[in-house]
């Protein structure tokens, strides 16, 4: 039986949106029938690559009026809330780049809107869940005899030439990946968070360390740093009751069938497989009628509660209990 490709609106056509455009264009399960960005040059550039797609300069107009079955949102973080709400109102399955919104309050409203719609519609783009190395680590942790996790240590380093985040941006953007991975690996909610930060005397290197404690007592540490001379580097080490587990060393994923340009940043090269697998799994879930293949709207809300608490801890200098 032949199944028609899913008609997708790609909303947000900057760096991340361009990556999804290349991926979706190579997946037979999808056809990009609409594109949108408030920055006209981005829309015009994408229109040259997908000339048969309807071009919009207003994302909400695109959601409301484009001839589409689903939407992929890759706009700026502070626009996610309004666009996702519009998608839910229309009943569109939606893949929204992380974070779901910029506050727990807004993410809770997304969860409630989805519940009112009566079906799961929103998937959050934490692509590490689809990375082969993270999947292997997850499998090892949950295999028989692996033991209960006691400590999960993660690092997330970026060169200053690519990331110029301050302390708060390292928490709101970079840390969301690591918080999601902690919850995904442990299957546990986070009860308390403590944040410390330091900056080099010249201001070029910024380090944020976040310590998490889960409801069952699992401890997590996350090192987030950007500075000159650093290479893109991620890592995850788990101490369990029976011994250690370690994420495979970071290697650029040049073998992925999704196109990777030479100018793509190291993080995109590293996670090329993950992004393609994520988009393909999302499309398969839509075709199957389940709509969501990865992190849910509720996961997005849970991560935002931790981010809010981490920011409060940064400001107060004290551990902060998660409020839900």
UniProtKB/TrEMBL annotation:
Keyword Isomerase: no
Keywords: Oxidoreductase
InterPro entries in the cross-refs: Gfo/Idh/MocA-like_OxRdtase_N, NAD(P)-bd_dom_sf
Stretches assigned to the Gfo/Idh/MocA-like oxidoreductase N-terminal domain: 6-124
Signal peptide span: none
Domain of life, source organism: Bacteria
Pfam family name, one: GFO_IDH_MocA
Family named by the database record: Belongs to the Gfo/Idh/MocA family.
Protein name: Gfo/Idh/MocA family oxidoreductase
Species in which this protein is naturally found: [Mycobacterium] crassicus
């Amino acid at each position: 039986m032949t199944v028609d490709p899913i008609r997708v609106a790609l909303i947000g056509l900057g760096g991340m949106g361009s990556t999804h455009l290349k991926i979706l264009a190579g997946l037979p399960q999808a056809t990009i029938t609409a594109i949108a960005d408030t920055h006209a040059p981005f829309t015009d550039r994408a229109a040259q690559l997908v000339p048969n797609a309807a071009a919009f300069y207003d994302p909400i107009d695109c959601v409301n009026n484009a001839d589409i079955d689903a939407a992929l949102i890759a706009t700026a973080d502070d626009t996610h809330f309004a666009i996702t709400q519009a998608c839910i109102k229309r009943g569109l399955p939606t893949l929204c780049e992380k974070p779901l919104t910029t506050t727990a309050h807004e993410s809770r409203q997304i969860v409630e809107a989805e519940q009112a719609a009566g079906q799961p519609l929103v998937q959050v783009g934490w692509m590490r869940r689809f990375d082969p190395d993270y999947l292997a680590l997850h499998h090892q942790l949950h295999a028989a005899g692996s033991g209960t996790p006691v400590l999960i240590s993660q690092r997330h380093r970026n060169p200053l030439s690519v990331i110029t985040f301050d302390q708060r941006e390292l928490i709101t953007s970079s840390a969301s990946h690591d918080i999601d991975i902690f919850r995904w690996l442990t299957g546990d909610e986070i009860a308390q968070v403590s944040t410390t930060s330091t900056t080099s005397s010249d201001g070029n290197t910024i380090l944020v360390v976040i310590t998490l404690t889960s409801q069952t007592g699992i401890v997590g540490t996350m090192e987030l740093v950007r500075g000159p001379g650093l290479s893109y580097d991620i890592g995850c080490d788990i101490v369990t009751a029976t011994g250690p587990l370690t994420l495979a060393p970071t290697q650029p994923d040049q073998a992925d069938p999704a196109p990777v340009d030479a100018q793509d940043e190291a993080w995109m090269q590293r996670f090329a497989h993950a992004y393609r697998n994520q988009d393909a799994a999302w499309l398969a879930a839509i075709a199957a009628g389940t709509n969501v293949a990865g992190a849910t709207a509720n996961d997005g809300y849970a991560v935002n509660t931790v981010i809010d608490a981490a920011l409060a801890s940064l400001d107060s200098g004290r551990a902060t209990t998660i409020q839900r």
